[in-house]
Amino acid sequence: MKKSMSAWRWVPTLYFAEGLPYVAVTTLALIMYKRLGLSNAEIALYTSWLNLPWVIKPLWSPFVDLLKSKRWWIVVMQSLIGGALAGVAFFIPTAFWIQATLACFLVMAFASATHDIAADGFYMLGLDEKGQSFFVGIRNLFYRLANIFGQGLLVMLAGWMEDRYGDIPLAWCLTFSLMAGLFIAFTLYHTLQLPCPEQDEHPSANEQRPISLQCLLVDFMETFISFFNRKEVGLMLFFLLTYRLGEAQLVKIASPFLLDTAEAGGLALSTSAVGAIYGTVGVIALMAGGILSGILVSQDGLCRWLLPMALAINLPDLLYLWLAVARPDNVYLIATCVAVEQLGYGFGFTAYTLYLIRVADGPRRTAHYAIGTGLMALGMMLPGMPAGWIQEQLGYPLFFVWVCLCTLPGIWATWMVASQIRNNLKHNNHE
């Protein structure tokens, strides 16, 4: 009980700190680069590369367990994230700001991915099984609150400062300076408040941890071989890499589309308006979709809802096509379209998560799930890289037609996976 009560001092802040740098890399960077004048092709290409650390995260996750304690990794990575955020703020006014800020974002992405590994491992060491069950909803809530804070309040603050000072670079310098200060505070706070579980001591003092590099590498290779050496591996990869093929391109262009001028085919919204739409209404709709899908799957099973979820995550992309053609100037109507798309995304993404859990089943479950999340990040990274160039060649309306066509392979893959699960259930019932 005492351990669970003390967890209130670190679980909420730890997962808020886990969510914020991911938002900075995947959302704030997009909007900042658009406001600072980069083209859509440059934005999509550069920011897609920032997904690389989450793609290859499984490659170094065993070393986080082998070297130092998870508590050490958390504190060091938070300080590194704070330094990277300060670097973004410092380099924005310079002549080489593109290269320098991208380097800072890349450092931030690697630190954030490593922080994810350490934080999730520390959560299991710092709490007993009952405490883990109790705080799972709390940690998810504060991770989502970090999304609202980053996508919503910080973007709105940057927009307010753009209007107040009439200086876009200054507004984003101040925004990232604020985030850097926040992470310095997180580092100091967690240095004092994170517990020191006995199981989280130095690896050399823990007999249960692997201390042989050769054994670690052998286990590492066996993990990858066992993941890919399975029945229906082709269908598994097809599903993991295509389920969000359309969404991976849409997410890179959605914010630039809302911000772009009418002459360029955009909706000419202010930075503050985009922050309000995506960071508040959008995140709330996203959470509602996730909650609803969880309830339905728990009642009827994954197989029943797999295809409806695929349709829910993909069909709302048609709303962006309508926005690009109609170009309404009513911000409430635009916000409603975005909310519907985010609701469908939250509803449909549950299918992806549950499928990852299903394919990760077995004695190496944790490592297989990490590989699956790496493939998930790869499925976002590769399609996102050319998305800006495609949009510039086609224009916004035809680009969103292209996005809608790209949803078809994922829907087909989902239908095949649902059929496979259904056949497996019938086979097991006969046995």
Description of the molecule:
With 431 residues, this protein is an all-alpha fold. It has 2 domains: 1-194, Up-down Bundle (Growth Hormone, Chain: A), CATH 1.20.1250.20; 227-424, Growth Hormone, Chain: A (Up-down Bundle), CATH 1.20.1250.20. It is 83% helix and 0% strand. The chain is built from 19 helices and no strands. The longest helix has 37 residues, at 129-165. It is globular and about 55 Å long.
Whole-Å distance between the termini? Answer: 45 Å
Level-2 CATH architecture of the largest domain: Up-down Bundle
Strand content: under 5%
* CATH level 4 superfamily of the largest domain: MFS general substrate transporter like domains
How much helix is in the residues?
Answer: over 70%
What count of structural domains?
2
Rg over alpha carbons: 22 Å
According to CATH, the fold-level topology of the largest domain is Growth Hormone, Chain: A
Please give the count of helices: 19
What is the CATH class designation of the largest domain?
A: Mainly Alpha
Dominant shape = globular
